[in-house]
Amino acid sequence: MDQNIKKLIPFTKPYQSHIVWNIVFNILYALFSTLSMITMFPLLEVLFKKSTAVIKEPTYTGIQDIGQFGKDWLFFTISDLNQKQGPQFALLLAVVLVIVTFLFKNLFNYLASYHITHLKNGVLRDLRQKMYYKIIDLPISYYSEKRKGDIMARMLGDVNEVQNSFFTILELIVKEPLTIVFTIIAMLNISVNLTLFVFIFIPVSGFIISKIGKSLKSKSTRAQQESGYFISLVEESLSGLKVVKSYNAESQFKKRFDNSIDRLLQLTNSIGNKNNLASPLSEFMGIVTIATLLWYGGNLVLVDKTLEGSLFLVYMLLSYNILTPAKNISKASYAVKNGLAAAERVFEVLEIENAITNHHEAIIKDTFDSKIEITNINFKYEDENVLKDFSLDVMKGQTVALVGQSGSGKSTIANLLTRFYDVNEGSIQIDGIAIKQLELHSLRNMIGLVTQDSILFNDSIRANIALGKEDATDNEIIEALKIANAYEFVKELPKGIHTNIGDSGNKLSGGQKQRLSIARAVLKNPPIMILDEATSALDTESEKLVQVALENMMQNRTSIVIAHRLSTIQKAHKIVVMQKGRIVEQGTHEELIALNGTYNKLVSMQSLE
């Protein structure tokens, strides 16, 4: 059994009753599919008036002879009706018999489909849910290497493909094979010689079809990867549309898009052509077999006279009854190959080891009491160390500012404190406890983060601010907005705090978005605040408004301020000057100015701007 099929089995467990009922109704469908053809025989017998009178009523001798007993009883009943009520009544019974068997065949088909629909949709929901939970739980580092579009393609397209393809396996192993088995049993009862032709047809047909389907899985994988790239391209084009237009790069993006959809077109055409070949090929093989049967069976009826004409017609109907399931098996085997390729991509994401997890004896900590200790940490994103032997103590109630040129490792400190990434060497401790031993939720509950990019969601102002405190009242929201100097513009909006701010908050200016981000952190009210270039996106006027707000917010709080504009951090208790991942100077603003070193140079450069 393929590994991916094994991995899917746990997802089917909550729906076991649907699987059982699907199998039961598929067995009944296969049985009545054959019976519906067999009941044509008494109908033909009545029409051609070939049946001789059966006088003796058959007796039931046991389960082993139930088939023969059923056949004898049917002929006795029709013969008896023919004698007593006339041929019209016998014909009516034969027609009713045909209708009833076809009714049951289709009823069982519907009931089997009903249960497999519940199974497919249930597994689809559970797979999507597990995939989304995994996407949310994976560390930030995973997404710095992967395209978002590829992840979206796996969650939407590939999970759908798994749903559409895999559950044809139930029909592959139950419905269609049993229809063929029951039909062959009936055919063997009519003529062993004729049935040998069918046995030759099925393996030959299966062999030819499997040869064509060999390359289907690899092509499906390539098509799904291309779909991921294609969705990624659309997502990047939409999120970076201003840049695309301002650099007149539309033609470049159109060219990339055209190349991607051309590759996708070739792959999907190739896959489609092979899929499309399955049905006509199996039908042609079937017709070749039926033509051979007509020639050989016709000889048995007309020349050898060893087979009745009406039985031969029933036999031909039965042999055609094999064609549809054989055709479905070949199509389903192609679909399963597509599903295997899709499942591989889905489980690839589900099985990724999350490097940032809770310690097996994680400590839940609600308060911050004394200090943050960063001791001899080394950290690299890829090959080169971003932080080298970095050590820093932040006492409770202190405001510590990290300054330095871009790429000096300032923002990395924020990423490590919040455990978006884990240190390679060294340790970070809060109140003497290593943050790797703290329960992740409780660690992040103690920290408020305001980033350089104001990340807001397509929802109301209220929902965006209440992200860290779902049960916040309107008054608490308004209070947080006031502290962040944002209430002035919010109250002027048509629906106030209930106004929708659009995709990524694009209905607002950069300064307004940043003040909402600060209000969100204020409402969360954490003991430790990390401000990562929090004012760099603001104009001078907004910066002054926000700076006052930040100073209010930081009064009884421990704050780590990553700053580009040095004017914003002059009141900090400690300023740490960084260069290429190392601390080169630290002290108060006055002490560092007096040193006349790197910090003084940075201040001089900014005052000249």
Descriptive overview:
This protein is α/β, with parallel strands linked by helices and 609 residues long. The mean pLDDT is 79. It has helices spanning 3-12, 16-38, 40-48, 66-84, 87-137, 140-145, 148-166, 168-190, 192-213, 216-239, 241-246, 250-302, 309-350, 410-417, 440-445, 461-465, 474-483, 487-490, 510-524, 540-554, 589-595, 598-608; strands at residues 371-380, 385-395, 399-404, 425-430, 433-434, 447-450, 528-532, 558-562, 574-579, 582-587. It has 2 domains: 3-350, ABC transporter transmembrane region fold, CATH 1.20.1560.10; 371-608, Rossmann fold (3-Layer(aba) Sandwich), CATH 3.40.50.300. Helices cover 64% and strands 10% of the residues. It has a 6-stranded mixed β-sheet with strand order 6-7-8-3-9-10, with helices on both faces. It has a 4-stranded antiparallel β-sheet with strand order 2-1-4-5, with helices on one face. Pfam families: ABC_membrane, ABC_tran. It is found in: Cell membrane.
Count the beta strands: 10
Shape estimate? elongated
> What Rg, in angstroms, do the CA atoms define?
37 Å
Q: Count of helices? A: 22
Please indicate the percent range of residues in DSSP E strands (runs of 2 or more).
5-15%
Q: In CATH terms, what is the architecture of the largest domain?
A: Up-down Bundle
Structural class: alpha/beta
How much is the average pLDDT?
79
* Tally of separate domains: 2
CATH topology of the largest domain: ABC transporter transmembrane region fold
| CATH evolutionary superfamily of the largest domain | ABC transporter type 1, transmembrane domain
Look at the structure and give the CATH class of the largest domain. Mainly Alpha
Distance between the termini: 69 Å
Strand order of the largest sheet: 6-7-8-3-9-10
Biggest sheet descriptor? 6 strands, mixed
Helix content: 55-70%
Low-confidence stretches: none
